[in-house]
Amino acid sequence: MAQKTKSFGKPWGTLATVGSIPRHLERAEAVARFRLTAGHDFLGVYLHCLGVTANETCSICGHAKMDGDHLLQCIGLDEYSADDNVSRYWEVQRQMVKKPSTDVG
Ligand SMILES: [Zn+2]
């Protein structure tokens, strides 16, 4: 209970309310779900917050803010179903490695 209280107001506070991530998942799926739930997703908004990138832009479609919400709406990921956030997440990670930002701050 004390752990839940400490996490309120923190970006990872959602972990206190969503319950545990099922243990039967493949590692890649578990990692993607954890990162997206905790907000430590290594997407544009998070990387910009860390000072790794110059902006929060989606490197695939150019949308102004790349976060977990945009991940499900990105037009550059139409080959994946709208509710397959795990496949979408790893495709974005692959694309970001192929096209790293040159505007690193
Ligand atoms: Zn996009």
Automatic annotation (TrEMBL):
Keywords: Nucleotidyltransferase, RNA-directed DNA polymerase, Transferase. One of its GO terms (molecular function) is RNA-directed DNA polymerase activity. This is Reverse transcriptase. It comes from Trichonephila clavipes. The lineage of its organism: Eukaryota, Metazoa, Ecdysozoa, Arthropoda, Chelicerata. The gene is RF55_23213.
